[in-house]
Amino acid sequence: xxxxEISRLADLIRSYLKQYGYDxxxxxxxxxxxxxxxxxxxxxxxxAGGLLxxxxxxxxxxxxxxxxxxxxxxxxxxxxxxxxxxxxRREQEEAAKVLGVKKVYWLGxxxxxxxxTDEARLRIATIIRRVKPDLVLAPDPWMMYEAHPxxxxxxxxxxxxxxxxxxxxxxxxxxxxxxxxxxxxxYTSRPNVYxxxxxxxxxxxxxxxxxESQLEGLEPLLKLxxxxxxxxxxxxxxxxxxxxxxxxxxxxHAIPLAEII
Length: 261
Ligand SMILES: [Zn+2]
Description:
The protein is α/β, with parallel strands linked by helices and 261 residues long. The protein has a single domain (31-249), classed as Rossmann fold (3-Layer(aba) Sandwich). The protein is built from eight helices and seven strands. The protein has helices spanning 3-19, 27-30, 43-57, 81-98, 118-131, 149-164, 201-209, 215-236; strands at residues 33-38, 61-68, 103-109, 135-139, 182-186, 193-196, 241-248. A seven-stranded mixed beta sheet has the order 3-2-1-4-5-7-6, with helices on both faces. Strand 1, helix 3 and strand 2 (61-68) form a beta-alpha-beta unit. Bound molecules: zinc ion. Zinc ion is lined by residues 39-40, 43, 151. The site of zinc ion (ZN) has 4 residues, from loops.
């Protein structure tokens, strides 16, 4: 298919989805409950900090779920894993407050060793059932050249848990079935929505700076993030934006259209 044909098909699918109540362009601005899932402390801020701050501001309930304890996130020898995990937990809680996040859930897996297991999937589904989000955020597990296994596994586990959590016979002891309407992937090489975060980039950066243990690596990243947000903004004619790949949950299984939209 030519680029024009793919583009026409994508528009057609989007308008078809709208007829069924799925509007991926509006979802970040209209979702009432948002759950951002991060492999490590600070990933939600980098990937969707602006969106979370803006959503909290308009009265949406925002939550975070951090899958690992962040205990590998240092280049300095001399600090123990336990010490680092404790520090990063405090930093994450403070950063979440800056963004207006109501609560941070933790699964506590060891940083660098997030298991790709049925147990991890069920634990994530349990939190999804508890929070009942309309929109779930996760790293895109299909991003080109993503080398960190925690990120790839987190993206896959969240996608699977978002699907399974809607089945009443899946782990019925963990709560009533609930499946989010949308999965929004941050850290994506195939964005299909640019979220206007003009007026909220400052909050995103302020939240990121709470991750003091990461600042050495964060300084160049912060500058890069501003350039990245500017570039994304140009796509929709605003000052700053966050790029996401948003998929209605019904497209993440057995329908080969997710790539196109
Ligand atoms: Zn990470």
